[in-house]
Amino acid sequence: MRIDIITIFPEMFDGAFSHSMIKRAQSKGLAEIQIHNLRDYSDNKHHKVDDYPFGGGAGMVMMIQPIASCIDQLKSERKYDEIIFMTPDGVLFDQPLANKLSMSTNIIIMCGHYKGIDERLREHYFTSEISIGNYVLTGGELAAAVVTDAVIRLLPGVLSDETSALSDSFQDNLLSPPVYTRPADYNNWIVPEVLTSGNEREIKKWQYEKAVERTRARRPDMLQDTKP
Questions:
Q1: Is 143:40 a contact under the CB 8 Å cutoff?
Q2: Is residue 91 located within the same domain as residue 127?
Q3: Closest CA to 154 of 164, 144, 139
């Protein structure tokens, strides 16, 4: 998988993609992440990428030309499955969407700034618009990093245990059940006996019941469409 990220602050991604699973994915050739400085595509001598909005109002708007030029250049080199704009008014990012994007070969992610981008870009260039939550960030870089991390960790070979991602919260519309590790007794805090019983059937039953219990308590909205 290749992910191209367009940004005016490329240095923000240095740490996010240089450690842990994302670094491993790139080292193993399972994922390629390319960061593009939008200012490099501006035809303005000062590398300007924003201007005042028509109709007045506070804030600046990201201009068409640099973004269009960058995307056009990338599209001339390869075919893209998705061209994504990170924006607070986009579709809320969730695990099913991460699963879907993980099946892609090439993705472009555009990081917005200021008051947004020229609406004509949204009408003619982007195939998807995504938000990571009902709040506003300074820019789309952190959101793009979140999406990239959530998608790449799903690629076969990235996680050490191939089944690990399948047991994550949200994969089966439930939160994950509680987990424990050694020692089984710490300060008289005891691990549930069923987990040390070796009875796989009973363990699976306990895990499911606890997942439903935790989801009902913390995220009842996830159970609304679940049949009893």
A1: no
A2: yes
A3: 164
Residue 129 within a domain: yes
Q: Give the Cα separation of 13 and 45 in Å (integer).
A: 26
80-98 CB burial, b ≥16 within 10 A, e <16: bebbbbbbbebeebebebb
User: Chunked in runs of 10, what are the mean pLDDT values of the chain (228 residues)?
Assistant: 98 91 94 98 95 91 97 98 96 95 98 93 97 95 97 90 52 84 94 96 95 93 67
Residue 98 maps to which CATH number?
3.40.1280.10
Residue 147, classed as helix, strand or coil, is helix
Give the pTM.
0.85
Same-domain check for residues 77 and 123:
yes
Longest dimension (CA), the chain: 70
Phi/psi class of residue 192: alpha, beta or left (left: φ > 0; alpha: ψ in -120 to 50)?
beta
The two tokens of residue 34 are 């390319």
**pLDDT at residue 225 in the model:** 56
Residue reference for tokens 């195939």: 127
d(CA 126, CA 64) in angstroms, rounded, equals 12
As a whole number of angstroms, the distance between CA 118 and CA 163 comes to 42
State the residue range of the domain holding 11.
Answer: 2-152
Position 228 scores a pLDDT of 46
Q: Residues 99, 143: one domain?
A: yes
